[in-house]
Amino acid sequence: MLCMIETIGRVSNNTASLELVNKAIELGQELLQKPIELLDGVTKTLESLKGKYRLVVATKGDLLDQERKLKNSGLQDYFHHIEIMSDKKENDYQKLLKHLDCQPKNFLMLGNSIKSDVLPVLEIGGSAAHIPYHITWSHEQHDVNLEHENFMELKAINEILSFL
């Protein structure tokens, strides 16, 4: 909600009406009440992987919102560690791996963003799998045909099981 309000101020040169700010708050509150919808295969895949690997959530965004989403998803017990980052750049992943005492060559990131989930992990020597989603923020889109020995393109999360 804060980002929406900041954007309203910025694009209106701080001349927007209080009514518009209130509408942004109303929309934000509606979004906070939306139920979490898990993608097909997520729970079964996590069940297959739990106990065989240290599973980690590495996400970015608002701390409280991401914590709420994870709690409401019912998935938090599958994970060894949860990392909510303000950004997902090489340095952020290096800090995470140091905290986990994990070498990059032993790290595999699954994500829907080439820019935030794949490229920085490949840069530090890890592996990454891209699982496209039909909705991706415009600032996360990356239209490059990526070829890298540590990269794979998946159609769904459960496809990772045949690679591990």
UniProtKB/TrEMBL annotation:
Keywords carried by this UniProt record: Hydrolase, Magnesium, Metal-binding
Top-level taxonomic group: Bacteria
Pfam families linked: Hydrolase
Single GO MF annotation: metal ion binding
Coiled-coil blocks: none
PANTHER family: GLYCERALDEHYDE 3-PHOSPHATE PHOSPHATASE, N-ACYLNEURAMINATE-9-PHOSPHATASE
UniProt name for this protein: Putative hydrolase of the HAD superfamily
Lineage: Bacteria, Pseudomonadati, Bacteroidota, Flavobacteriia, Flavobacteriales
